[in-house]
Amino acid sequence: MALGEFDLIARHFTRPVRRSPLGVGDDCALIAPAAGMQLAVSSDMLVEGRHFLSTVAPERLGHKALAVNLSDLAACGARPLAYTLALSLPRAEDAWLAALASGLHALADRHDIELVGGDTTAGPLNLCITVFGEVPRGDALLRSGARAGDDLWISHPATPDEPGWLGEARLMLEIFRGTPGVRTEGLDLDRLRLAMECPQPRVALGLALRGVARSAIDVSDGLLGDLGHVLRRSGGLGARIEAAALPRSAAIARQTEALQLECLLAGGDDYELLFSADPADRDTVSALAARAGCGVTRIGTLGEVGAPVEVIGADGRPLATAWASFDHFLSR
Ligand code: ADP
Ligand code: MG
User: Fold this and answer.
1) Is 71 annotated as a binding residue?
2) Where does Mg(2+) 5 bind (predicted)?
């Protein structure tokens, strides 16, 4: 069934608002952060062929478009409030839109966040979401707060059975690309595909880490590249990562060591929190993560200003660190 612009907004993207004073239908939405809170705002765009394959199920596309945005709020320790959706679509197909909307609404409901507005236009398939969250004034987790001597931590699922471990999204991408040398025998490809298409934003962990983590970032472009952003924003600190400490799922551990490190350190699309904390807070961090329903692993230490960024191999020597972060204009 073909739908007009306003029909499709009314049918798929208009739901009664519960916590925002005004949702879809007027020129602006209204959002009411609580007293003493700062608004945390972030946008992420997903472009067909760049960020997702045309074969992705629309429910999963809806989930992922919102998940990657919630991951940014998580990295700042912000509580999600509302989001807007700017959508460019080649065709207005009712069933496809219903599925996209169900993926969005399901994740939104899980985080008690509502769609309050957006824009809809015909064009190449492209979804741009802006999320709005709130954080007590001065409490946001920032990239700039890391200090020499901090422990470096990465989040991951609570149990080995859960999908979505560090590097798995990249491993699935290599399988889709047919990259030679990827060991696929015995792998659960449906599970790996979930890692790529249905990331779980670590919102509860981000909230729990307020006042404990000194710096945080969500890993979207590869662990080492994203770590580089933290180190630069924190005055040019160094870092030492123990390769053996990196959390490895069974699917990752089955690959050659070189591919494992590529996926773990330069994978991208992980949406885990990479954060630093005072070594005196180790027990606190572990307890907070357990309460937030995920796992965390200590993978290294931050060094002094000007110290190198090193990944230490099993023999205690630094590995060559040629892993680049994903860059839309420089990477393939
Ligand atoms: P305007 O002309 O003022 O930009 P539009 O006619 O584009 O408004 O949109 C009408 C209403 O529908 C607005 O409240 C807008 O926020 C909302 N809207 C448009 N597209 C979407 C969408 N994809 N998801 C949610 N709300 C949308
Ligand atoms: Mg208007």
Assistant:
1) no
2) 221
Whether 328 contacts 259, CB under 8 Å: no
Ligand nearest to the CA of residue 28, numbered in listed order: 1
Mutate to test the pocket of ligand 1, among 119, 126, 128, 131 (most ligand atoms within 8 A of CB): 119
332 pLDDT higher than 50:
no
Any ligand 1 atom below 6 A from CB of 36:
no
How is the chain split into domains, by residue range? 5-136, 143-312
Structure tokens at 307: 């110290």
**Angstrom distance (rounded) from CA 245 to CA 301:** 12
For residue 43, give the H/E element and its range.
strand 37-47
Rounded-to-integer distance, Cα 14 and Cα 114, Å:
10
| Cβ 108 vs Cβ 66: under 8 Å | yes
pLDDT digits (tens, 9 = 90+) for 123-162: 999 999 999 999 999 999 999 999 999 999 999 999 999 9
Gap from CA of 290 to ligand 1 centroid (Å): 40
Report the separation in Å between the CA atom of 27 and the middle of ligand 2, taken as the mean of its atom positions.
4
CA dihedral (120, 122, 126, 130) in degrees, to 10, reads -20
Please identify, in words, the CATH class of the domain defined by 143-312.
alpha beta
Q: Are strands 309-312 and 237-242 parallel, antiparallel or unpaired?
A: parallel
Sheet holding 237-242, edge to edge: 213-219, 272-277, 151-156, 295-305, 237-242, 309-312
CATH 3.30.1330.10 for the 5-136 domain, yes or no: yes
What are the phi and psi torsion angles at 293 (to 5°)?
85, 20
Give the per-residue pLDDT at 21. Answer: 96
Report how far Cα 51 is from the mean position of its chain's Cα atoms. 13
Question: From atom 14 of ligand 1, which residue's Cα is the shortest distance away?
Answer: 25
Backbone angles phi, psi at 13, to 5 degrees: -120, 10
